[in-house]
Amino acid sequence: MEKSILEATGELERERRSRERVERVCKELVRGIGDDRAEVEELKRQTVNLQDELEREREILQVELDKEREMLQIADEWREERVQMKLSEARCQFEEKNTAIDELRNELEAYLVSRKQQESKIATREKFKREDEIFHEERIHFKFQEKAINQSRNEMEYLSSEKDGEIDIQGELEDENENMCRESSSLEFEEKNKAIDQLRNELETFINAKIQKGEICNEREFEGEDENLHERETDSGDDSDLQSIELDMENGMQWDFEKMREEGSVLAKLPSRGTVVQIIKNYWVLSENETKKKMQNK
Description:
- By secondary structure, the chain is an all-alpha fold.
- The chain has helices at 2-162, 169-213, 219-235, 239-250, 257-263, 273-297.
- It is rod-shaped, with a radius of gyration of 67 Å.
- Residues 218-242 are annotated as: Disordered.
């Protein structure tokens, strides 16, 4: 009985101890749950605070993002304006360059036109000078021929006046031939003088027409050239000039009469260089023969 009581008390004691343990555990659990609840509440408060802060930060970020978008939009607008300004400046520069190029082109064209006109005037002037020189050479040529003919005629008259006695039939025939030659020479000389006068009239008419058309700039130049031509013609009557002309003819001076004949010029009627030289040689030979005959008769 006592044993069972002891056992029962022992069991009660064990139950009491286990209950105390359970109570301690429960108290600790309750205490832990309270702590956890406080922590949860604290965590909730912190979460709410964090959410509020995040919301504020989000709003701030949204505001900043809007500002950045506005700034980017303004920057895009500025960049577009700068591009337009640069395009307009480039267009203005291009137009200015085109204008300058057009002005330069116009100036160059005007310069080329004036230069071409000047060159044509110079060429016309040179052409007139060449024609004047040719005319001057022809005049000298004819003066030389006229002087040679007059000299030979004077020699013939002198030789005929020096002859004594009667003239035989052969001499009469020679005199008749000489008279016929002189008459033909005088006729040819008159025709040549007419041709020269006609050529001078044609040249004067042509020069006056060119002056009236304005193709010749300075009319005084031609007057000066005419004066020089007159001086050269006056000086050309000396024997030295005739001798120089004779030397030039003997050395092969060329007179382009073939081309003049093809073109139908007035100078086509004039004799050639060989004809003039042959005529002069014939007169000289004839005068030498007459001199020899006179010496033999004496």
